[in-house]
Inverse folding.
């Protein structure tokens, strides 16, 4: 499974954007040189905290992170899982104040892209601007799909849907091997994502295994029956907008 290279910290982002529309060499150069500094975070550290007013947007280079909100009673809802190539807070460029946090689910390596550089991109590179805008629109599409799942899908369907979604998102950036992918989330984190208890998550994983739909060994998930998993999830990949076409 591929990792970001030190020579091009924007490699996964470029690959993700080019899935939707080719980039020019100049646009790739701009993205590759947009990262002003690279930082590393440990598990459970906030990449960005609620209430912050960052002067840069955070590009996830390595690891898994989550967008989350805490309730007053200490309960947490994870509203999105981020993988390499994701701008976890591109919207902070215009919204300024963060109304939620981004936490590292695994050790993470991030690239800080100053808002000054993003402003330059929006003023000088309209096509690249549209593709970055598209990435935030797809974030919104993923949120909507998550809301539908929380409100209308069964717990089994929610888990199956998340596995189908993450497989495709990781496949785009070259982080799958055959039908397998690494998913280093705890059952508690999956519960916070799907609105389920840890016990319920464990039961659902066992159901998917028993049905022969997946195997899950350590941190590696293998989809054994893709058609069956898609059927359980009622999964339609249209919300990921993977088509390559002019934008």
């Amino acid at each position: 499974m591929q990792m970001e290279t030190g020579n091009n910290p924007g490699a996964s982002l470029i690959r993700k954007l080019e899935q939707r529309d080719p980039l020019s060499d100049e646009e790739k150069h701009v993205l590759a040189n947009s990262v002003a500094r690279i930082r590393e975070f440990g598990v459970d550290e906030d990449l960005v905290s609620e209430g912050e007013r960052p002067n840069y947007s955070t590009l996830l280079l390595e690891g898994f992170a989550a967008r989350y909100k805490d309730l007053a009673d200490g309960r947490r809802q994870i509203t999105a899982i981020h993988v390499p190539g994701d701008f976890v807070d591109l919207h902070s460029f215009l919204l300024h104040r963060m109304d939620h946090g981004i936490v590292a689910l695994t050790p993470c390596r991030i690239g800080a892209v100053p808002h000054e550089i993003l402003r330059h991109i929006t003023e000088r590179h309209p096509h690249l601007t549209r593709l970055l805008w598209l990435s935030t629109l797809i974030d919104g599409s993923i949120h909507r799909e998550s809301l539908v799942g929380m409100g209308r899908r069964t717990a089994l369907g929610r888990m199956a849907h998340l596995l189908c979604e993450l497989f495709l998102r990781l496949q785009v950036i070259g982080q799958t091997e055959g039908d397998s992918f690494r998913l280093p989330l705890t059952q508690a984190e999956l519960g916070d994502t799907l609105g389920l208890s840890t016990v319920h998550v464990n039961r659902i994983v066992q159901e998917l295994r028993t049905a022969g739909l997946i195997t899950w060994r350590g941190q590696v998930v293998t989809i054994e029956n893709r058609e069956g998993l898609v059927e359980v999830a009622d999964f339609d990949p249209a919300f990921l907008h993977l088509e390559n076409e002019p934008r």
Summary: Residues 68 and 78 are 4 Å apart (CA to CA).
